[in-house]
């Protein structure tokens, strides 16, 4: 029997990365550029991605642990790029 909780937990890191992009795009209409209200959640989202990948590695068994580590490495690097550009986009010309 399939454990759907495991399959749902695989979607957590990409969902958090998607929330980063949605937060920045919606925040441009709600807040002014360089707003700390827009910046502080962004600073919390990337560590959440890393922690969720570590959680996936811990709950995996056998060779799936290697698969989750590889998924965490690739998605972590891509999420870092998205996170960096999201912070730059949210700050705009406020520096």
Structure commentary:
Helices cover 82% and strands 0% of the residues. It has 4 helices and no strands. α2 (12-30) runs parallel beside α4. The protein is elongated and about 50 Å long. The protein starts with a helix and ends with a helix. The mean pLDDT is 89.
Spatial separation of the terminal alpha carbons: 54 Å
Shape: elongated
Helix/sheet category: mainly alpha
> Unreliable stretches, pLDDT < 50, 5 or more residues?
none
Kindly provide the radius of gyration, computed on alpha-carbon positions and rounded to a whole number of angstroms: 16 Å
Give the ordered list of helices and strands: HHHH
Number of strands: 0
Helix content: over 70%
Summed up, the helix count is 4
**Average pLDDT number:** 89
Question: What does the largest sheet look like?
Answer: none
Range of strand content: under 5%
Topology:
Layout: H1 4-10, H2 12-30, H3 36-59, H4 64-91
Keyword list:
single chain, 95 residues, mainly alpha, elongated
Summarize the structure.
With 95 residues, this protein is mainly alpha-helical. The protein contains 4 helices and no strands.
